[in-house]
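Sample pair:
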Amino acid sequence: MKIFILLSRVPFPLEKGDKVRAFNQIRTLSKEHEIILYALHEKDVDAEAIEILKPFCKTFKVLPLHKNNLVFRMLHALLRGLPFQVGYFYHKKIKNEIQEAIKNLKPDIIYCQLCRTAEYVKDIQGTPKVLDLMDAFSKGAERR
């Protein structure tokens, strides 16, 4: 099976929970499936991260997430009733690139980690999608 994985960060180095989870999912799934990894990233990606992840991925693409228009993007998300994190991580140019890749690569399933990446694929029809929320936001809100 071809699995298109969309992450909001390159899952290495393993210093945050979402990266650890994604890295281990990719590593495990790659044993029996073809992994297409597209990862947003705000900073330069460490060469070691690319070398460590490449053996698990048939396709690996890093999408630079620039901070230009950040305030506008976040306000636009708010006005549309979307979480700030969707606005923070969303960029129209990236959406076009992701949708073109999905059209050309024809994955069997699309996996998005967190709602911040789901906005990129929500309009795609004909391909099953999985959204991994991984956090219990309600529990965090309760604790605050």
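The radius of gyration is 15 Å.
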